[in-house]
Design goal:
With 232 residues, the protein is an alpha+beta fold. The protein is built from six helices and twelve strands. It is globular, with a radius of gyration of 17 Å.
Amino acid sequence: MSPQTPPPGTFITQQEFNTYSAAWSEAISSGHNLPEIFQRTGQARLTYVKFSLQTIVWLLSTVGARSVKAQFLLKPDADLKQSHFTLALYATDALNGRISAYYLADNQTSSDQPPFNDQIPHDLVKAWLQNWTAAKQVTPAMFASSYGPMEGYSFDIADFMDPLFAARTYDNKEMHIGFGLHEHYPASGTELKQTFGLVIRIYKTTQTAARVQDDPSDEPFFDLSHPFPPGG
């Protein structure tokens, strides 16, 4: 079997990564145009990004990989008139050094997402996702940690392996990384805090959903990550 050729837009360069991650850091620090970053003009708020399972297979096949980083990025649109939030995944080794390419997410809007009332049997995850869609406004406080503004999330390699085992077959499926808000009370104070989080799940591809027989509600969710601050 000949190797598959990655489609255009699968990767970004180191320079692009540096530029997009710096733009995110500036946006979250200033709070400038933060709501527009997650909601393009005339569209619904961004609720998830996706990766083909082949992309995830390439990522997890990186020799020596111990963790997967999900880096927050601010990427300009094609017309350069607006920028949008997205993610890049990459693998790191036991010393936290990058050892893979930067894999860029495919952005989607909530209008493209399967109705989660039918596909989410887990009330806790459902609450996180509903908190995000119900939030009146996206604020810098949602991305604040005790170490500074969040730059992304770090996952153990098993957190990405486990969904692939649960998927059984890779045909007509893709990995979604959904956006949620965790509501909790921090160590200091009694004010309820909302913190942005990521949820991993395997979904049917929308183009072939009618031909896939397994029930997507059987696929588990995974959210075992921890945020990383600047330099994480």
